[in-house]
Amino acid sequence: MATDTSSFTGGSLLLAWQLKGKRVLIVGGGDVASGRIESVLVADALVTLIAPRDGLHPLTKRFIESSDRITYHDRTFAGPEDLVDVDMVLTAIDDVETSRTICAMARALKVPINVADIPPSCDFYFGSQIRSGPLQIMISTNGQSPKLANIIRRRIENSLPEHAGEAIEKVGQLRNKLRERAPGVGGELGKRRMRWMVDVCTAWEMEDLAALDGEMMAKLLDDGWEYNRVPKVQEVGGRPRQSTKTALQKISGLLLSSAAGVIVGAACTALVFLKRRA
Ligand SMILES: C[C@@]1(CC(=O)O)C2=NC(=C\c3[nH]c(c(CCC(=O)O)c3CC(=O)O)Cc3[nH]c(c(CC(=O)O)c3CCC(=O)O)/C=C3\N/C(=C\2)[C@@H](CCC(=O)O)[C@]3(C)CC(=O)O)/[C@H]1CCC(=O)O
Ligand SMILES: NC(=O)c1ccc[n+]([C@@H]2O[C@H](COP(=O)([O-])OP(=O)(O)OC[C@H]3O[C@@H](n4cnc5c(N)ncnc54)[C@H](O)[C@@H]3O)[C@@H](O)[C@H]2O)c1
Fold first, then answer.
1. Ranges for the Siroheme biosynthesis protein Met8 C-terminal domain (predicted)?
2. The dihedral sign for the CA sequence 222, 223, 227, 229
């Protein structure tokens, strides 16, 4: 049966671009450039920054002083020679004409470019970002409303599961240990490895995954992976957690006992009062 692909349009490709050791040229040193620097440093890039010193944002200055991954040139953009051996270009300058010229040069050399605020000169857009350890969420409105992206980001931040970043970190460590035990790519072993990881992530609460330590991981692999089963948290030395229900019951118990306390207190006061009157 034919698949209807007519709605497969109007979006952009969302990726997690690996910049480790790649050279990113940033032109401009203002507020926007400082955000760009932060974004690419987080991705382990090597930055070349071209911007006159007198226009540097205080944050940009601090980044230049504190990071040995930034090569700084105190000048304006010079021409195509600045694009040699560059893997990505980001411009954030207050000069639309120069931005467009840099864009044309980068495209001639097939170097991907983002020009802040000029969508037709962008091969990719930035988005509103959430980071918590290895968890990275990007909200993109595909150029339609950056402010709404920012507002939606705040809402998502407030609704994220607690401990998500730590849980992902620990599961990453567990996967690495599992691959040491069961190495190789693909095949029956690969299928079993993936199924087991899916089962662990599904059966365990985020909070319990976040609490995994080296010893628990070893036990999880010994008693779980080796027998193709998923042990309970307590079986591998994890602390049994209070279920939500128990916590709720505790709170209502507390409320009830304080209500009872108030009633008893009121009764005593009334008794004392009546006794005095008598
Ligand atoms: C998300 C964020 C990431 C970042 O830049 O790091 C980002 N813009 C942010 C803020 C922001 N930018 C603007 C406002 C003012 C309010 C408003 O206009 O809405 C605010 C809000 C504010 O300042 O509070 C003005 C603006 N921006 C663009 C244009 C040009 C145009 O639309 O034509 C104009 C109009 C200029 C004019 O009117 O003259 C263009 C782009 N801005 C993008 C990204 C890309 C698409 C993002 C997406 O798809 O959603 C894209 C296409 C290219 C790019 O730059 O990559 C960051 C929020 C980070 C955060 O806070 O979390
Ligand atoms: N996409 C976004 O999120 C967003 C948000 C706000 C502003 N902007 C746009 O991004 C651009 C930069 O904004 P900003 O607030 O950082 O501006 P800014 O004025 O603070 O900084 C501009 C920087 O560019 C440098 N510069 C100017 N010409 C240069 C050249 N030829 N070579 C090298 N450096 C040069 C200046 O010295 C300065 O450091 C503006 O066009 C602005 O409209 C984008």
1. 161-231
2. negative
For residues 170-184, b (16+ Cβ closer than 10 Å) or e, as one string? bbeebeeebeeeeee
Q: Which residues have a catalytic role annotated?
A: 117
* pLDDT per residue as tens digits for the range 62-121: 999 999 999 999 999 999 999 999 999 999 999 999 999 999 999 999 999 999 999 999
Ligand 1, from 26, 128, 148: best to mutate by most atoms within 8 Å of Cβ?
128
Q: Does 252 score more than 70 pLDDT?
A: no
Least confident of 1-10, 85-94, 115-124, 150-159: 1-10
Domain boundaries, the chain: 23-126, 127-160, 164-236
Is it the case that residue 273 has pLDDT exceeding 70? Answer: no
Looking at domain 23-126, does it have CATH number 3.40.50.720? yes
Ligand 2 centroid distance, CA of 33 (Å): 7
Burial (CB count within 10 angstroms: exposed 0-12, middle 13-18, buried 19+), residue 40: buried
Classified by CATH at the fold level, domain 127-160 comes out as: Double Stranded RNA Binding Domain (3.30.160)
Positive or negative, the Cα torsion across 52, 58, 62, 63?
Answer: negative
Is 12 near ligand 1, meaning CB less than 6 Å away?
no
